Amino acid sequence: MKFVSSFKKNGALQSSRLENMRKHLEDRSLYALGCCSELLLSPDDTLLLSLDFYGDDNSKKPRKKAIFHHKFPNHNLNVEAVWPGLFIDKAGNYWDVPFSTAIDLASLASDSGASYHFCMHHNAGQPEQLGGEETVEVPATLLPGISLRSAFTLKKNVEIWRSNAKKLKMVQPFDIFLSNPHISASGIIGAAVMACFGNNSVRPQVVDKSQQFEGFYLHAPAVKSTLLVDTFSSVSFTAQHGNFQRLLLDLTRFHARLDFPSGSKFLSVATRLAQDFFNSQQPTMETVQAICPKATISFQQQIAGPFSFRVDSGVEIDWKNKDWHMRVDDPVFSIEYALHVLGSAKAVAWYSPNASGIHGRTSLF
Asked: What Å distances lie between residue 246 and 178, 253, 345, CA to CA?
């Protein structure tokens, strides 16, 4: 009797699982159909056209996109138009913008030296929130209007050590860009300017004072325009061991980056801390946390052959937690498969606790 009862119970559980699986497969939001065509207009000009259909009820209209790309001798030009455009804010809410265009001009990337980037973005129509049950305020950057953004940066790379050991003969590395053991560091300092004209020029209300903008700010409500100017910097460190040629444990790579997104905010908080120390006052936890840079770490380890394990995560200091002040922010775990036949290409399966399910992608370099 126990066997029959157990069989009936397990059978009912199995049937319930199959029923749930069937319901998930019938969910139209899991399916999408996309059509894409890339036209080579000239050796330096390409035109990409795409049309995407989604099965969920929130996307009743197909999403259309057109991207024109032109190669200058020392610059790249991109002109993009999407209707409707799909955007996501910092809180994870999705938004539909009826029509969005962008013109992007950037100097070619280099290991060291100066570079600049100019972008003009235009939104038309009132944004609509997708999905979320709660009604939240529309992000100011998605409101109708024109925004002009420009950034200028200076980058310097320093090679601390590079291995001179000979590689294995007649053995191609699984990835040519990961075949040189080395230790290096780099630093970036730059300035950013943004001018907005239209409804998107409204400055959003900041609830968290630690996130408040401290740079140069000019707002003219009469003509609906805003001007923002600030500086930023970044410091990174990379260390790699192994040539990624052998079948086992021939690649160990570590990368860390510290970002200072607002130079004016950093100086303002640093001045506040100096005043607290000078006046023999204990600084608040919010002040100490505000001066800390945003840290990002990455670790990659070869498992066997072209397979390697990689973890990427942000690291933040949380003084409110008395037991452990370090907090992991948005970690991503992935398994990479190097397509060494193509020189430097990989297929990636990744998982993030903040995202639903396991995802995959293929990258070519």
From this structure: 13, 15, 18
